[in-house]
Design brief:
Length: 126
């Protein structure tokens, strides 16, 4: 990852925590830490994706696009199913997006605050 971490303001912390806990679990991304109304998710003990209230930012930003890395295409499929079950809206089911590159396998959902959340695998099908 080229960014150490990212923070996202959300409108409903408990709803966002429930959504991301369920949607990111298939990618091996879990809640690592909670501090002052903020949740930090990541892998291997390092929180890289944070959300909550950040200083004066108590409202969700305009919709953003966030893509989470998957190691296998099956994880992209599982992310999509888990996210939809958690209340997300479909924004592009799992599949190859060859216009990016031949092995770009991604799925897109719209999360609780309107953000375009993606899981993507850049590896060829096993």
């Amino acid at each position: 990852m080229i960014i150490d971490h990212i923070g996202l303001a959300v409108s409903d912390y408990p709803q966002s925590k429930a959504f991301f806990t369920q949607a990111l679990a298939p990618l091996g991304i879990v809640l690592i830490k909670e501090v002052n109304g903020r949740a930090g998710f990541g892998r291997n003990g390092k929180p890289e994706f944070w959300f909550g209230t950040f200083g004066t930012h108590s409202q969700a930003q305009n919709p953003m696009h966030i893509a989470f890395a998957a190691e296998r295409r099956a994880q992209v499929d599982e992310f999509y199913e888990a996210a939809v079950k958690a209340g997300a809206k479909d924004n592009g089911p799992p599949g190859v997006r060859a216009h990016y590159h031949p092995n770009y396998y991604g799925a897109f959902v719209i999360g609780p605050d309107g953000h375009n959340i993606e899981a993507v695998c850049h590896r060829p099908e096993a």
